[in-house]
Design goal:
By secondary structure, the protein is of the alpha/beta class. 28% of the residues lie in helices and 26% in strands. The chain contains ten helices and 15 strands. The strands form three sheets. Strands 3, 4, 5, 6, 7, 14 and 15 form a seven-stranded mixed β-sheet that branches. Helix 7 links the parallel strand 12 and strand 13. It is globular and about 55 Å long.
Length: 326
Amino acid sequence: MYAITIPEPGGPEALVWAEVPDPVPGEGEVLVEVVSSAVNRADLLQRQGFYTPPPGSSPYPGLECAGRIAAVGPGVSGWSEGDEVCALLVGGGYAEKVVVPAGQLLPVPKGLDPVKAAALPEVTCTVWSNVFMIAHLRPAETFLVHGGSSGIGTMAIQLAKSVGAKVAVTAGSKEKLDYCASLGADILINYREQDFVEEIKAATDGAGADVILDNMGAKYLNRNVDALAVNGRLAIIGMQGGVKGELNIGTLLGKRGAITATTLRARPLAEKAAVVAAVREHVWPLIEGGHVRPIVDQELPMSEAAQGHRVLEESGHIGKVLLTRQ
């Protein structure tokens, strides 16, 4: 098969479409023939040499995919050859074939283009696990998501609105904020021109946000705590703004706040399977009912993955960038 390889870390040009050995499914695994994958910021870090795949996993980038089951390994039940699926991966999505633990498979939602299904696993699992399973966002609470026009952000807006939350977003342009509003965002904050702490407090009569989903990390740490409401929960899922920051514990204590930080890739198989099962139970009906949809900025041939990485680095996109084999 062919896959995107990384012979040496570097810029987008370091991604090379090359022939590699076919993967073989083991106990509890299936082989998926990939029709599409999606570009995530973690893939950019891996390309640069900063996000090494866990031992024993695929060396190729790609944390999600959609396709058809080509073979079923021993010990797998409930799935058959030919089933259309999408999957949460530990790696290997930028390839013609990938091996997936059965617990990380999801059926392609009814009525959805199988290619576009690759835009779902990472964002739905990230948002559902952090915002709902950990931070327990509830109806009528105020939810702030940074980077509202990103793949994560566009899904977070829709899922938060589906439970009746009030949604605030940050983004860097009017175009992006307008798109967030079209998805249901109530409070629109241009982080280039406005202070999100002041804006979120003004919009909530000084109370602040009950839940914040943050992809920036260190750069926003203290400001996020300032923006929290009493009993607020800050969920950190990224470090685009650095890895080390100072925290005013006094402020956090005064708000009886909580901070969590998680990734999906390094979690044990059983934990990822539990997240995937929860997404299938709670999110898939919303997608099939037309209440939630994947937002796709553009589709590129998988062999041109380097251009997909450039698109993410330039940050002009809205939603997901897909890599397709069609």
